[in-house]
Amino acid sequence: MTHIRKTTEYLRHCYCTGAKRMAPLITSCAVVLLFTWSFFSWSSALYSSIREDTAAAVTKKLQYLLEPPVFAEVIGRRGENVTLPCILRTKPKNYKVKWTKVEPERVGLENIVMIFNANAFKPYGLLGRRASLRRAHEMDASLLLRHLELDDGGQYRCELINGIEDENVVITLRIEGVVFPYQSKHGRYRFTYPEAKEACVEQDGRLASYDQLYRAWTEGLDWCNAGWLHDGTVHYPIIRPRPVCGGELLPGIRSYGPKDKSHDRFDAFCFTSNNNGSVFYISGSLSYDQAEHACRARGSELALVGQLYAAWRFQNYDRCDGGWLKDGSVRFPISNPRNRCGGIAEAGVRTFGFPDKMTHLYGAYCYR
Ligand SMILES: *[C@@H]1O[C@H](CO)[C@@H](O)[C@H](O)[C@H]1NC(C)=O
Ligand SMILES: *[C@@H]1O[C@H](CO)[C@@H](O)[C@H](O)[C@H]1NC(C)=O
C-alpha cells in the first residue's frame, strides 16, 4: 500500500515539474516512471491478492445455489414461454425456495411469484398464475413463465431459505421488442405522465424503461423530441448530434431527469413486442371513416401504432403507402429504405401526422 502511495506521489511530482521545465526533466521522468512501474506492478499484485481475500469475505461464496447462474439474462417476446434458471448444487435438509420479482419502484413490497419446497409449491399474485416449476431434475429450482406480457421484463430473484444462511441469485428477463416515440394528436409536448402512460397502453404498448430506450438508441433510434419514460424521467435519443437537438454533444441519450408527473408535458416513448395477429394494407383513397369500414368488412380493425411497429420490427413489414391507423394518424413501415419512399436512409415507421379525417388520400392498415 505504501508503495502505491509513493508511486502516485512520484508521478504527480513528475507531471508538475515536467510542465514547468520541460526538456531536462523529461528524461528523468522516464527513469522515475520505469523505476516506479516495477514497484507498482509488484505492489499491485500484492494489493489485488489482499483485495480478493476481502471480497470473498464480503460477498460470501454461495454454498447451495449455482453461481454464476447458468445464464444471467433470459430473452423472450410477448406471448412466448421462458425458463428462469436456478440450480441447487447441494440440498440442505430443510429448505424453501422463493421466487420474487424485484421491483425497484415498489421498495419494501415483496412481489412473490412462487414458494416451494421438496414436497409442495404455491404460486402467488398475477405472475404466479402463469408460473410453474420446471423440475427437470431433483436439483432444478428453475421457474417457467408462460405467455410473456410486456410488463414481465425485469429482475427475478431465486432465494434459497434454510433458516441459517439464506442465499439468492438474480436473473434478468428481457422482453424483446421495439420502442416508438408517440405524440398527441393535439401536437408536440401535450402529455402529462399519466396521459403518456395511457397513450402507450392505447397503442398496444407500455411506457418504455430507460434500458429499453438505450437499447433502441443502439439499434438506430434518433428522435429530437423528449418523451416520458416509465420511471417518470424524460429523455430523448440522439445518434446524429445537431444544434436543434441539444447541441453538438456526443451522440447519446439526452436527459431532462425526473419531471413533475402531473404538470410537466412531453411526448411518450412506448415499448411493444411481438403480437399474435397480423397487419395488412387496403389500398384506396379513403377517408378515416371509409378506412375503418374497409377493415371491419374484412373482419379486422384499424391497426394500433404499436401493432404497426411490431409488424415492422418482427415481420419486416414494408409498404410504401400511407395508411390510416386507429388513432387517426397516417403512417407507413419501411424495412428496405429507398429513395422514392420518403428518402430517409434508415429503416423505420414514417408518419404523416394526424391529417384531417376527411382527407381522401390514404389507404388503411388493418389488424387481425
Ligand atoms: C407455452 O406453454 C403452454 C403450456 O405449457 C403451451 O400450451 C404453449 O403452446 C406454449 N407456448 C409457446 C409459444 O411455446
Ligand atoms: C393474442 O394476444 C392478446 C394480447 O396479448 C391476448 O389477449 C389474446 O388472448 C391472444 N390470443 C391468442 C389466441 O393467443
UniProtKB/TrEMBL annotation:
<dbReference type="Pfam" id="PF00193">
    <property type="entry name" value="Xlink"/>
</dbReference>
<dbReference type="GO" id="GO:0005540">
    <property type="term" value="F:hyaluronic acid binding"/>
</dbReference>
<dbReference type="InterPro" id="IPR000538">
    <property type="entry name" value="Link_dom"/>
</dbReference>
<feature type="transmembrane region" description="Helical">
    <location>
        <begin position="21"/>
        <end position="42"/>
    </location>
</feature>
<feature type="domain" description="Link">
    <location>
        <begin position="273"/>
        <end position="368"/>
    </location>
</feature>
<dbReference type="GO" id="GO:0010001">
    <property type="term" value="P:glial cell differentiation"/>
</dbReference>
<dbReference type="InterPro" id="IPR013783">
    <property type="entry name" value="Ig-like_fold"/>
</dbReference>
<keyword id="KW-1133">Transmembrane helix</keyword>
<dbReference type="GO" id="GO:0007417">
    <property type="term" value="P:central nervous system development"/>
</dbReference>
<dbReference type="GO" id="GO:0007155">
    <property type="term" value="P:cell adhesion"/>
</dbReference>
<protein>
    <recommendedName>
        <fullName>Hyaluronan and proteoglycan link protein 2</fullName>
    </recommendedName>
</protein>
<keyword id="KW-0272">Extracellular matrix</keyword>
<dbReference type="InterPro" id="IPR007110">
    <property type="entry name" value="Ig-like_dom"/>
</dbReference>
<dbReference type="Pfam" id="PF07686">
    <property type="entry name" value="V-set"/>
</dbReference>
<dbReference type="InterPro" id="IPR003599">
    <property type="entry name" value="Ig_sub"/>
</dbReference>
<dbReference type="GO" id="GO:0002052">
    <property type="term" value="P:positive regulation of neuroblast proliferation"/>
</dbReference>
<dbReference type="InterPro" id="IPR016187">
    <property type="entry name" value="CTDL_fold"/>
</dbReference>
<keyword id="KW-0964">Secreted</keyword>
<dbReference type="InterPro" id="IPR050691">
    <property type="entry name" value="Hyaluronan_bind_Proteoglycan"/>
</dbReference>
<comment type="similarity">
    <text>Belongs to the HAPLN family.</text>
</comment>
<keyword id="KW-0677">Repeat</keyword>
<keyword id="KW-0812">Transmembrane</keyword>
<feature type="domain" description="Ig-like">
    <location>
        <begin position="69"/>
        <end position="172"/>
    </location>
</feature>
<dbReference type="GO" id="GO:0001501">
    <property type="term" value="P:skeletal system development"/>
</dbReference>
<keyword id="KW-0393">Immunoglobulin domain</keyword>
<dbReference type="GO" id="GO:0005615">
    <property type="term" value="C:extracellular space"/>
</dbReference>
<dbReference type="GO" id="GO:0072534">
    <property type="term" value="C:perineuronal net"/>
</dbReference>
<feature type="domain" description="Link">
    <location>
        <begin position="178"/>
        <end position="272"/>
    </location>
</feature>
<keyword id="KW-1015">Disulfide bond</keyword>
<dbReference type="InterPro" id="IPR016186">
    <property type="entry name" value="C-type_lectin-like/link_sf"/>
</dbReference>
<dbReference type="InterPro" id="IPR036179">
    <property type="entry name" value="Ig-like_dom_sf"/>
</dbReference>
<keyword id="KW-0472">Membrane</keyword>
<dbReference type="InterPro" id="IPR013106">
    <property type="entry name" value="Ig_V-set"/>
</dbReference>
<dbReference type="GO" id="GO:0045202">
    <property type="term" value="C:synapse"/>
</dbReference>
<feature type="disulfide bond">
    <location>
        <begin position="320"/>
        <end position="341"/>
    </location>
</feature>
<keyword id="KW-0373">Hyaluronic acid</keyword>
<feature type="disulfide bond">
    <location>
        <begin position="224"/>
        <end position="245"/>
    </location>
</feature>
